[in-house]
Amino acid sequence: MAKRRKRGEGSVHLRKDGRWEGRVVIGYDDKGLPITKNVLAKTKTECVAKLKKLQEICAGQPTEKLRPDMTFGEWLDFWYQNYSKPKLRPTTQASYEGAIYKHIIPALGKIPLSELTTNDLQRFYSMLKKEGRLIRAELYGKGVSDRMVWLCHARIKTALDRAVQDGLIRVNPTADCKLPPKSAKEMQVLTREEMQRFLIQAKEEGYYELFLLELATGLRRGEVLALQWDDLDFGTGALRIQRQVYRANGKLVVSEPKTKAALRTIVLPPSLLEVLKEYQQGVTSRWMFPSPVKEDSPLDPATCRKRLQTILDHAGCKRVRFHDLRHVFVTTALESGMDIKTLSTIIGHVSANTTLNIYTHVTDTMRQTAAAKIDRGIGKREPQDGLSSGSNAGLPTQPPETHPRAVFEPYKGKKRKAGTGCVTQINDHLWEGRYSPQWPDGKRHPRNIYAHTESECEEKLAKLIRQTKAEIAEAKQLAAEGKWDEVMVLAVQKRRRRQEGEAPNAS
């Protein structure tokens, strides 16, 4: 006989789609009907754990808080903590909390929920556009972006929809609000010549395979950095995308992608497989693109972003985001004749409509090209002077010899001398210096120092190298005298003094 759950612990059952659902009552409405919340998981154990966490979150939220005379701020906080937050990832939570607790509640929180009107909301949106920016107003102006207004509106609308559903208000006042027009951010796409220079420079700086794979697949940044060698079958060329990496609360987090559509398998071309096979010979980590400073860790997305901008600058290309490299792939694929459905599956969109909405400018060009071809095929019409009859219709054509392949010499940069260690920028305010000399036991024992500026890091690293060389010389002398035990004791003492902030005695 199945074990019966205690009263108040909620219920757990297996759904028809194979997932487990947990449901718990968190209160009752004015009619005495139960108000429930649910969680979903792949296994029963995971579902029970999620349900327990949900109950902990909802604990201490008295049902009497759900009353018609509560303020909008009280309701918005209650809605976020109980209905919204449990379903959100840490990075999404930060976005929600920024809009709710820094913008919406300070401006509208004291208004009674039942008295909130469309005019109140409209004045709030106007205020955001005029003087809503909280930081860096001297750089970007006093008003927030149109996108931020839409984000605040979306949070308010969803919270008030729930208030209507729970019977706290009769109508949602957001229905008649006028918002700034949605304007899509212009996509920056590298030209063919810029891509050549970019890849040549990336090869010089050791990031060729990463960015070549991105330009050939259009993966999201978190997806490409989370790849492991086990995900790639060199025999068939099949590459499985089944995880993503992102930074949350100062730590790297590896998790499953947000949507089922993001869990996919794509096939790599043979030429790219050859490049990756050769690249694998020099990688000792399970991660395809491992961190250069942390063991068994993927490359940090922030490091990848900084390296991208550095390579673009050195190659003389315009600055683009990592996500714009995804646009380069999609644009190239569409112009090459790939159908929308196949492309949507490759890049992990939920539906082909999403792809069509984002890349309307590309598909419009394709439609114009198709119309021109039909016109010529049916009406026997000759192409207009100066226009190509191929996929580049509408662009001036010139003889191929007038477009020779650009000769580009990559920027070499400054090479550090052997024995001077290395300096790496971890983030905007942290630098790491590392020195890995060979000790008398034949092994390399790396030592690290950290600083807030590059110059300070170089100074600390030079001091560390001098101290370490003195220690190695002393250890070699003791080892030559057969006093190996004293060598080990000396190393431990030096390390302890260094950790305590004392300068080691180099005598």
3D structure, described in words:
The chain has 507 residues and is α+β, with helices and mostly antiparallel strands. The chain contains 17 helices and eleven strands. A three-stranded antiparallel beta sheet has the order 1-2-3, covered by helices on one side. Strands 4-5-8 form a three-stranded antiparallel beta sheet, with no helix packed on it. A hairpin with a 5-residue loop joins strand 2 and strand 3. The termini are far apart. The relative contact order is 0.05.
Describe this protein with a few key phrases.
11% strand; 17 helices; 3-stranded antiparallel beta sheet; 507 residues; alpha+beta
* Unreliable residue stretches: 385-403, 502-507
Strand order of the largest sheet: 1-2-3
Q: What distance separates the N and C termini?
A: 76 Å
Which value, in Å, is the CA radius of gyration? 30 Å
What's the β-strand tally?
A: 11
Query: Percent of residues in helical segments?
Result: 40-55%
Number of continuous helical runs: 17
Mean pLDDT: 82
| SSE order, one letter for each helix or strand | EEEHHHHHHHHHEEEEEHHHHHHEEEHH
Largest sheet: 3 strands, antiparallel
Shape: globular
Strand content: 5-15%
The class by helix and strand makeup works out as alpha+beta
Question: How is the secondary structure organized here?
Answer:
Layout: E1 11-14, E2 20-28, E3 34-41, H1 44-58, H2 72-84, H3 90-108, H4 118-131, H5 137-140, H6 146-165, H7 192-204, H8 208-217, H9 221-225, E4 232-233, E5 238-241, E6 244-248, E7 251-255, E8 264-267, H10 270-280, H11 301-315, H12 322-335, H13 340-347, H14 352-358, H15 360-379, E9 422-427, E10 430-435, E11 447-451, H16 454-480, H17 484-499
Antiparallel strand pairs: 1-2, 2-3, 4-5, 5-8, 6-7, 9-10, 10-11
Helix pairs in contact: 2-3, 2-6, 3-4, 3-6, 7-8, 7-11, 8-10, 8-12, 13-14, 16-17
